[in-house]
Amino acid sequence: MRLSAYVLGRDVASLESAGDFRSILTYHASTAPDDFVSLTMPVRAESYVWDDTLHPIFQMNLPEGYLLQVLQEQIGPQITASPMALLSVIGRNMVGRIQVAAAGAKLDEPTPPIEVAELLQGDNSEEAFAELVRQHATSGVSGVVPKFLDAQSEQTERVVHNKGTLLTRRHIIKGSTGRLPYIALNEHLCMQAAARVLPTARTELSRDAKALVVHRFDVDDQGQLHWGMEDFCALLGLRPVAKYDTTWERIARAARDHVPGATQLETFRQLATTLLLTYALRNSDCHAKNLALLYTRRSDVHLSPAYDMITTVVYGGYQHNPPGISFMGKKTWDPGKNLQKFIAATFGVSAKTQGEIVEAVSDAVSETAPRVRDAMAQHPDFEDIGKRMLIAWNDGVTGLRAKRVYGLPEWNPSPAFEGFSDPPRLPKTKVVIGRSEALGKR
DSSP assignment, residue 247? Predict the structure, then answer.
């Protein structure tokens, strides 16, 4: 199979498969230096041969979960064994400035629209959200993944489903699930805390708190492709399934390789703040796909706004998970002085500045906590989750401020952390390796 790769609508390279486990990208002779497909693949005459099904930048955008199931039903199970065939279906609708399609294909084709505003006001149960995706994904058999109409614009919307997520031209829309109830509300609250100390993606919550609208930051004000975007899985040459198999050391080296010297200091400060936030919010799902670089050219590369921040420990089966990315060979919520030493040595952020960041994070968490209490009152089914979030945030902040870590003065948080009973304990999950769940209990 042979496809064309486009940057901002310009045909810049050919992509073809060579057997089952090799892909080749070749730039056209006329491609401009700034029209590179990936930061790791600058424009050159020699082809880029990747000994895997697809180069990392293309694997980054492949759908998972429910949309993949729908596409398999419509196109056939062969796309499971052929990532290139799957890319040919969804390649027009990816994050960042690149698109992939057959040579000469139209990159924008209309499909039946819906309005985002209706989703924010309507039924966002897991079943309703899945049906919404199914209804609009089935038109993808023509080679175009379904599109939605943004209520703020008459432009058509592109949609890709990835683990309960709809990607539109202006927004990313996320639903909640039975296993992770109110995950949309959880993320919205975490993002509000993060926004007080970091550049973040802007979020809006549906009335029933079960759907989250995230405003895309890789497009311009009209929803047109503008920024290139690569997560650290792609930058490190990792498959998406290996998103936890990296370290903060490797992420720092990749940032140093691609971010110009003039903006490295701010990039490393943002990475340090993000790392400290994962401790404060008890976000064990910070992994290589949840960190990314944005760019327009090689001299204009910087860390993207923060996204996908969640307090994961409030859900059964996740309450004992360690941090998603290791540093100094360990994943632990009790890092001691090693955390301060690591950030100073790896990101070049002084101990004094780190203390200031921890103070700012503490204030951000304290100022956001009342919104958690408001959500608990407005959505009774969220009450126990909200309690767990406040307990987790309190543990996270006091842990950072402890003498064995940063040794900051005792924290005086807002009254929102007081005056509620303990939530029920989360059930413990025990996994027995090698024993099928289909077998009866002994």
Answer: B
Which of the four pLDDT bands, split at 50, 70 and 90, describes residue 142?
A: very low
pTM: 0.85
Specify the amino acid at residue 40.
T
Give the distance from CA 294 to its chain's centroid. Answer: 14
DSSP state of 409: P
Percent of the chain with pLDDT over 90: 62
- Is residue 409 classed exposed, middle or buried when 0-12, 13-18 and 19+ CB atoms within 10 A define those classes? exposed
CA gap 78, 8 in Å, rounded: 30
Tell me how far CA of residue 72 lies from CA of 33, 63, 88, 135, 345, in angstroms.
37, 11, 13, 15, 48
Distance from the first to the final alpha carbon of the chain: 51
Bridge-based pairing of strands 48-50 and 211-215 is unpaired
The type of residue at 220 is D
From the CA atom positions of the chain, what is the Rg in Å?
22
Cβ neighbour number for residue 360 with a 10 Å cutoff:
15
